[in-house]
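Let us practice reading a record.
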Amino acid sequence: MNGTSTELSLLLPDASVPIALPNGWSADEAATVLTLVAPEGDIRVSFVAASKSAASADIAREAWKSVDAGFSLPVLNEADGPAAEGWDGTAQIAYSTPAAEGRSALAIVRTLGERAYVNLLWSSKAGLSRRMAQIGEIIKAWRPAGLAEVDLSGREPRPWSAQESSALAAFVRGALREAKIPGAAVAIVQDGAVVFAQGFGVTNIDAPGRVTAATRFMIGSTTKALTTLMMARMVESGRFAWSTPVTELLPGFTLADPDSTARLQLRHTVGAGTGMQRRDTDLIFRTKGVSAADRIAEMREMLPTTGFGETFQYSNYLVAAGGFAAAHAFDAQRSLEEAYEAAMRALVFQPLGMTRTTVPPRNGVDEDEAVPHALDFDGEPVAMDPAMERFADAVAPAGAAWSTASDIARYIALELAGAAAPEARREPQTRIDAKSSYGLGLFLSEEQGIATLGHGGNTLGFSSDMFFLPKKGIGVVVLTNLGAANACLAAVRQRIFELFFDAAETAQAIVAATAKAAAGILESKHARVGIDAATVEWLAQWTGDYRSTELGPARIERNPNGGYRVEFESWGSDLGVETQPDGGKLIVLTSPPWSGAFRLQPSASGDELIHDAAQTKYAFERV
């Protein structure tokens, strides 16, 4: 497997077994507490064990003072979590840092008995994005003596019955209500049969139609599992091998780094270990008239930010390249988009009877089709323009499929039957942490002791989860029509584990913790971001036209109602103003799906607006 560890190991506080550090990480010998440093030196992770004698935020503050006596950053938001992975409780505290610094400060507090275990993360945003998997691995590796994780591996699942169906349906209805998700569809497969298939809520909050198991949703990155199944079918037929260089299948393909281009095999494109960064911002902004060939051409300017095979980095661009390369081998006479659609239809959808599953292009609008939704500035769900989801069309293999719970259940049944080339797709390619890795378009993990495979998906207005337990004969798909609904999906997953295996009942606690965290984030946002007339008048000096080389044009103008709005090439948003702790101001997009999450920082000269996307900074220059 990629991502090997060095011989350097150390013992964490209160632990009895040393851990091996990821390649290139080191301990800061001069630090007052145990602190690990990333290879580039821009990430520091400290470990502080203390008595559980106060609230999590206070424990974290004292821990920071043991690292930096002058630490005084204000809390941005705090999220408490339920008992999980053997811990009695968890909390995550994010701190407000000036945008110009491009840094993040975070505290993670986990409790066990009368002790609190605090990780302090001080990182550049670029480093956090680049080495998120390794940071997570280091933090999860802290296992004090007495920590005992749940292990359900020895339990056999109970046969699903009407009792379990009733319990799950009641839970899903409540979870959707708490998370403000308009609609969802759920299907469960056990021992080759669909034992549960039900819709909940509405397809469109503005024109309600009931969701059923046959309602079509955009499934986002769950598409990747279907794409690699198509690729596996072609490997089986001898069209190419997983080891075939991408340049042999996709003429003219190249990355900015010649070595990466030469080394890139088909399996690497869907294995998340090449060191290429994500760059989804490029996909979202420029969509009009952008073809698959255009997206492939954009990769000529992309450089890896970590070594080949060094760590997990997720790249939709690379998955698109792999899927389109396979599609070109399937039919070189068609455009990449048409060839991909034809290959998926011939090798996946038709053989499995997935009659309501498509990838672009699509003709017309299905009457039983969910509409994307996002939360507005006040945290309420609103319907989005479905055209905003067309950003995925030009990277279709990575996330453009539309499907139903019933159709995905057919795919899951194939996986559970072991007929989907498991020997290759289920082989770990890139390590994520001690219990999880990435295969070929599939996440491989151990959850509560049970081997679990699958792939979730997120677009701007949809969220999905798909997973299966090969050794237990169980598979699940959950589709929703709200963006960023992952916490609710995690709660539903846990509830299904509870119903099948009598796992400890923590699903409802996840729902409650998620709702509390969302309320806290909303309160914090309203305190920082102003949308009233007096506050937004500051935007008058930034009106006019701008252009970004990567993201295209932008125009800021005053609305007739006195507010301000920005229009980009393919969509627009109302604007607010965020006041920073240091008194600086940021331009904030307040319309769904951004609702305060996307920010532009004016340059000191007034000639540029900068969007910091962690590993890439985009500049809109005044024209």
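A brief commentary: The longest strand covers residues 103-112.
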